[in-house]
Design goal:
The structure holds three protein chains of three kinds.
Chain A (H helix, E strand, L loop, with lengths): L1 E6 L5 H25 L4 H9 L6 H26 L7 H18 L8 H27 L3 H21 L34 H18 L1 H11 L1 H6 L4 H28 L10 H11 L4 H25 L4 H17 L1 H4 E6 L11
Antiparallel strand pairs in A: 1-2
Helix pairs in contact in A: 1-2, 1-13, 2-12, 3-7, 3-8, 3-10, 3-11, 3-12, 4-5, 4-6, 4-10, 4-11, 5-6, 5-10, 7-8, 7-12, 11-12, 11-13, 12-13
Chain B lengths: L5 H28 L7 H19 L2 H25 L4 H20 L12 E3 L9 H6 E3 H19 L1 H11 L1 H6 L4 H27 L11 H11 L4 H23 L6 H5 L1 H14 L2 H7 L13
Antiparallel strand pairs in B: 1-2
Helix pairs in contact in B: 1-6, 1-9, 1-10, 1-11, 2-3, 2-4, 2-9, 2-10, 3-4, 3-9, 6-7, 6-11, 10-11, 10-13, 11-13
Chain C lengths: L5 E10 L2 E11 L4 E5 L6 H8 L7 E6 L2 E3 L4 H7 L1 E4 L11 H8 L9 H11 L15 H13 L5 E5 L7 H16 L3 E6 L2 H7 L2 E6 L2 E6 L6 H9 L16 E10 L9 E9 L3 E5 L6 H9 L10 E3 L2 E2 L5 H6 L2 E4 L14 H9 L6 E2 L2 E2 L1 H14 L16 H13 L5 E5 L7 H16 L3 E5 L3 H7 L2 E6 L2 E2 L3 E2 L5 H8 L8
Helix pairs in contact in C: 3-5, 11-12, 12-13, 13-14
Classes of the chains: A mainly alpha, B mainly alpha, C alpha/beta.
Chain lengths: 362, 309, 503
């Protein structure tokens, strides 16, 4: 008997949406094993990881707070991934966006102008775009691999953040802590559910999802993004200018990551700190894949990944588990998803070995 | 031991800074020559580093530490290999998954060991030769992994361009369909290449946690896996140039450290950006000539292979 | 010797949805040049791949020199004395001739004496080859020689040739036939796959004809006419399109001094190309693949822009530097050489695929928005008008057969009622029925006044369709010749780079 992969005539649309669920299920099983191996009661830990954190309104709002930047960044990244532009430096774009937006507070700490917040958000978007424009420029002008440049720029961005909070941006009245001044009210995103930390940023994330959805499914531009990724030659044939496409998807993703960055700072942290994001820029890559590079899928996937962050914090507090468990869970999720995805294009066939095909060939 | 001069010290540290890059990039070069792009080097290095450290700390044997580092890298690479070669997953996505998973699992495994001290990997001094001024300590008073890294460059060069097995590996990377049609097992050859890459990345990590900074710190690779990937492009897939590139990066790293040490009026963080910026710069310089990269890159790099037989 | 060299009995092989070989029997004695004749998709390639150990048969037996064998891999096939030259060469571009040959032979046969042996074998058979050259620098004919030398070094008893002349000039093909005859005289059997009837009549001793996976006839091809062979192959009497010289009108497509410098050593520079296509005319560009046709098509279509705007004009409007979009607006329709991945996206539905070439002229997209209901109507009309057999317009384009997909692409472009139609290899690898349909569609299109350009490697196709033909060689285009003044030999010489005056 042998197992064979048989190509499907048409890719399975059912499987496209089923495999993320399968991957999630497999990750839960594997997660149980990991808890067991680490010496924690598996079921109790699973409960503490996945159920307890969202068993009250505050918890649900926390979930949304974490899902918002993930979804926002992932929508941007997904456009790039669809077009075969591998921007994996969203973490850097997020950081620079946060810095660009915060600069306004740092240089006008006393301002009470109500235009402060909108200006910060716009600066955040521009900052992210600026950072993403470096790989875009290098790719289109010098043919430089955007995977490596965008990723290396993450380290540069984080060092830039560190330079600023340890130096010129440090709050003079802050007992020498590497932190900026605390943002004044006009520079803080309003909370939309009182008693929680759920802020206006979540609305922006929803808008990003809806816009992304319309763009990819209804517009010519979205169609061209899809064609660029599936068949670059066909894209040229239909009149797509590939350099323009690279610029657009990188600037789009950079802008959204930058927006997510300034929203984190102004909606949640309230000052510039050495660490702004717990790796949202990288987790958003998983969100994008888990959500099938589709905005609606990303909506759900961002909730799953947000839960993994929330659950990670929860089990750290409740059971004393290391925070790294969230990363392991996220990694496993992506592994399982990528393996299950073979079912989209192939059927599994189990055959009895016939006499003449005594194998040897692959 | 002869008195070590400043010049010797600097050169020694350059070699140390270069070695993890050299190990990982040499491994990745073989992987890419077989037509596979494994972006998970950073993850494999981290897991190699933490495993080597744990093995060294618990057994006290540096040899076991090195073996553990390599083995951990191999196990990680096998995950990638299964995903991309048997489940036909996208190599870019799988490599990213491997890195993200590696960051998570290494920090999980390493928590009990953060901040614990171990003894640095011993140097294997070669008598007499080690007494030659300047060059002596540089060439003949190094630890095992440094010798090994240089040896592997020579070995890989010989393997790829002088042996039949290497020819087959290059052929698979050039055209997997042609290789398959004349009867080579593309999947098996690539799987071995991926495992070799994993072992070398694991060793690169092991060198970091056993020798370069003998301790475990979360994410201590600090992007070296990505720099190693860039080195392979910089070297246009030639082992000798990987060596040159790695030592160049070692020099840049040490240069900025010394600038910081000498109290230059530039914040340390800005100087720390230097290796990353230099990496981007050399990538730009080498990629500028599109056809040169296209001609030297393995033609099937990153493509998925599936035979329908 | 009583038993034949190779005998197949009842070989059957199924793929999902098709029975590629249905109980095939074949017997080949030593020294015979045995033709395996059939249309595209008749199961020829599958059958030889079974013999060569590439596929395993589902049923049936194979006998080699009288003994039952089961060939498990190509390496095994080579070991017992079966060699194969592939249709799409199994060569490695970046490696040298020597490395390419070494890869395909057992490790013992390699070693230091290999270069010497390559010289010996290639001299014996008149196949000049330099072992140290890199394969990407070789012409198609030279590449084929590498494959042949690779096989001959292992002294095969049976040599399988899969469509070997489809990429050769007639002169190169003649040289190949000499080599094959020499081999046959030495006792080597040759299994020769082709759908070109003339050459089978000229070369082969015996023919087995496959249709839809079954052996439908065996014959001595020297005693048959090409027409009778064709009817055996296709299974019905032939009905070629009525052909008459058409009246042509004003110039609709003009190319003047078009040049392009190669980006790297693997592509071809275009040198000062000039031609025009007139209203109602079909203009053919012949040539062996790899002489710059791909580069030329990219520039004509506007996927790569010319340095000089005047180099290309559509309907009198200079557009050398205008995008493919603008050229479509001027009235161009384009059918690229590659169906999947260029003319169509395999993993998109037929509905979405109509947006690729047709969104401008059919109101499929209004400003930025896609109009799916118009696209659906248009896709359905394309399929109906051009007899595209499909399982619904929502299926992936990649699931259509080559012929049906090509009809869809040609239809998509023709329905746009173009002034100028640019088609590259319009019937490459499609079945005979679709080929006829596509030829008819192109002739009708020209009859309605469109200027049609066809780039093809298939001389018969060009001679059948075109009013004038020019030949491409090493990036240059010959003077156009009216088809009435041309013979296959004359074109063949041009394809090999000779100037007709000198020949």
């Amino acid at each position: 008997m042998r197992i064979k992969l048989v190509p499907r005539q048409t890719h399975s649309r059912l499987m496209t949406w089923l495999t993320p669920v399968m991957a999630l299920g497999l990750s839960l099983v594997a997660g149980t094993v990991v808890f067991y191996l680490l010496g924690y009661p598996p079921l109790q830990s699973l409960y503490a990881f996945f159920i307890s954190p969202i068993s009250d309104l505050y918890g649900v709002c926390e979930l949304l707070v974490k899902a918002s930047p993930l979804a926002m960044i992932a929508v941007g990244l997904s456009m790039g991934f669809r077009a075969n532009v591998w921007n994996i430096g969203a973490e850097g774009q997020l950081t620079v966006g946060a810095l660009a937006g915060s600069a306004l507070v740092i240089y006008f700490p006393e301002s009470n102008n109500i235009l402060m917040l909108p200006a910060m958000l716009i600066l955040g978007i521009l900052g992210g775009m600026a950072w993403a424009s470096i790989p875009a420029f290098l790719k289109t002008r010098f043919n430089t691999n955007e995977i490596l440049t965008s990723l290396l720029l993450v380290y540069v961005a984080i060092l830039l953040l560190s330079t600023l909070v340890h130096g010129p941006w440090r709050d003079p009245a802050g007992y020498n802590f590497p932190e900026s001044v605390i943002f004044q009210d006009v520079a803080t995103l309003p909370v939309i559910v009182s008693g929680t930390r759920l802020h206006l940023g979540t609305i922006f994330a929803l808008l990003a999802i809806i816009t992304g959805w319309i763009l990819i499914s209804r517009t010519l531009a979205g169609f061209q993004v899809r064609v660029s990724g599936l068949a670059p030659q066909a894209a040229r044939y239909t009149g797509v200018r590939s350099n323009l496409m690279i610029w657009c998807v990188l600037l789009g993703a950079g802008g959204l990551a930058g927006l997510a960055g300034i929203i984190e700072v102004s909606g949640l942290i309230g000052q510039v700190q050495p660490i702004i994001s717990p790796g949202y820029g990288f987790s958003a890559i998983i969100v994008a894949f888990l959500g099938r590079l589709h905005p609606v899928g990303i909506l759900f996937a961002s909730l799953v990944l947000a839960l993994s962050y929330l659950g990670g914090e929860f089990v750290q507090i409740k059971l004393g588990l290391p925070l790294g468990i969230a990363g392991v869970f996220q990694g496993m999720l992506l592994f399982f998803l990528l393996s299950c995805d073979i079912l989209i294009h192939y059927r599994i066939e189990i055959r009895k070995t016939s006499l003449s095909s005594s194998a040897g060939s692959t | 031991m002869a008195a070590i001069t400043t010049v010797e010290l600097i050169l020694l540290t350059v070699v140390s800074a270069a070695t993890p890059l050299l190990l990982a990039a040499t491994g990745e070069l073989v992987v890419e020559k077989s037509g596979i792009l494994n972006l998970g080097v950073e993850g494999m290095m981290l897991v190699g580093a933490v495993s080597a450290f744990i093995a060294m700390l618990t057994t006290g044997s540096w040899a076991l530490g090195i073996v553990a580092g390599a083995a951990a890298g191999v196990i990680m690479s096998m995950l990638f290999g299964v995903l991309t070669l048997f489940f036909l997953a996208n190599q870019v996505a799988s490599g990213l998954a491997l890195t993200l998973f590696g960051i998570g699992i290494s920090s999980l495994l390493g928590i009990p060991f953060i901040g614990l001290p171990i003894e640095k990997l011993p140097t294997l001094d070669i008598p007499v030769l080690g007494d030659i001024p300047i060059l002596g300590p540089l060439l003949f008073e190094q630890d095992f992994l440094i010798y090994f890294s240089v040896f592997m460059v020579v070995a890989v060069n010989f393997f790829l361009f002088r042996s039949r097995a290497g020819l087959i590996l290059r052929a698979v990377g050039e055209s997997h369909d042609a290789a398959h049609s004349i009867g080579y097992s593309v999947i098996r050859i690539r799987f071995f290449a991926v495992m070799f890459g994993g072992a070398m990345a694991g060793l690169g990590g092991a060198f970091l946690s056993l020798s370069y900074t003998p301790m475990w710190v979360e994410q201590m690779t600090a992007g070296r896996g990505w720099i190693a990937l860039a080195l392979v492009v910089f070297a246009t897939w030639k082992p000798g140039r990987v060596l040159i590139g790695a030592y160049l990066f070692g020099a840049v790293t040490i240069f900025q450290l010394h600038l910081q040490g000498f109290g230059v009026q530039i914040p340390g963080q800005v100087l720390s950006m230097l290796p990353y910026l230099v990496t981007i710069l050399v990538l730009v310089l080498i990629s500028r000539n599109a056809s040169r990269v296209k001609l030297s890159a393995p033609a099937c790099l990153g493509q998925i292979f599936h035979s329908n037989t | 010797m009583s038993s034949p060299l190779l005998e197949l009995r009842g070989v059957t092989k199924a793929f999902p949805g098709v029975l590629a070989n249905d109980s095939v029997d074949i017997s080949i004695p030593e020294g015979q040049i045995h033709a395996l004749l059939g249309e595209n998709g008749a199961g020829k390639s599958t059958l030889v791949k079974i013999i060569y150990g590439y596929y395993a048969a589902d049923e049936g037996d194979m006998y080699w020199m009288g003994n039952s064998v089961s060939v498990t891999s190509p390496a095994h096939a080579r070991q017992i004395g079966i060699g194969m030259v592939f249709q799409h060469f199994s060569l490695f571009d970046a490696l040298s001739v020597r490395d390419n040959i070494e890869l395909a032979i057992s490790s013992k046969a390699g070693g230091d004496g290999l270069s010497q042996k390559i010289h010996e074998v290639s001299n014996t058979y008149g196949l000049g080859l330099d072992p140290e050259r890199d394969v990407f620098s070789l012409s198609v004919g030279e590449r084929q020689r590498v494959e042949i030398v690779r096989c001959l070094l292992q002294s095969p008893k049976l040599l399988i040739m899969d469509e070997p002349t489809s990429v050769l000039t007639p002169q190169e093909a003649d040289n190949l036939f000499k080599v094959l005859n020499q081999l046959a005289e030495e006792g080597c059997a040759i299994l020769y796959i082709s759908h070109k009837l003339e050459e089978i009549k000229e070369l082969c001793h015996h023919a087995t004809i496959l249709r839809q996976g079954k052996v439908v006839a065996e014959c001595d091809p020297t005693k048959e006419s090409t027409r009778s062979l064709a009817e055996m192959m296709i299974g019905r009497s032939l009905d070629p399109p009525a052909y008459e010289l058409k009246k042509t009108g004003a110039t609709k497509f003009l190319v003047q001094n078009l040049s392009r410098i190669a980006e790297d050593e693997r592509s071809i520079s275009l040198k000062n190309i000039n031609f025009d296509v007139r209203e109602g005319e079909i203009f053919g560009i012949a040539g062996v693949a790899g002489n710059g046709q791909t580069e030329l098509m990219e520039m004509l279509a506007g996927e790569v822009l010319a340095d000089d705007n005047a180099a290309i004009s559509i309907n009198g409007v200079e557009c050398g530097q205008r995008s493919i979009r603008e050229r479509r607006e001027l009235g161009a329709a384009i059918v690229p050489e590659e169906r999947l991945g260029h003319g169509a996206v395999g993993s998109m539905s037929l509905i979405e695929n109509v947006f690729l070439g047709g969104h401008q002229r059919f109101n499929l997209a209004r400003r930025l928005w896609m109009n799916y209901s118009n696209a659906r109507t248009f896709a359905q009309k394309t399929c109906d008008d051009f007899d595209v057999r499909h399982a619904g317009i929502h299926v992936d384009a990649g699931s259509l057969s080559g012929g049906n997909l090509q009809k869809f692409l040609i239809g998509r472009e023709i329905l746009q009622e173009p002034l100028v139609m640019l088609a590259s290899q319009p019937t490459w690898g499609v079945d005979a029925g679709s080929q006829l349909a596509i030829h008819k569609a192109l002739l009708d299109l020209a009859a309605n006044g469109t200027a049609v350009l066809v780039i093809s490697q298939d001389l018969d196709e060009l001679l059948e369709l075109c009013n004038r033909i020019a030949v491409m060689f090493a990036g240059s285009l010959s003077e156009p010749h009216p088809v009435s003044s041309l013979t296959a030999e004359k074109i063949g010489l041009l394809m090999g780079g000779a100037h007709p005056e000198a020949a």
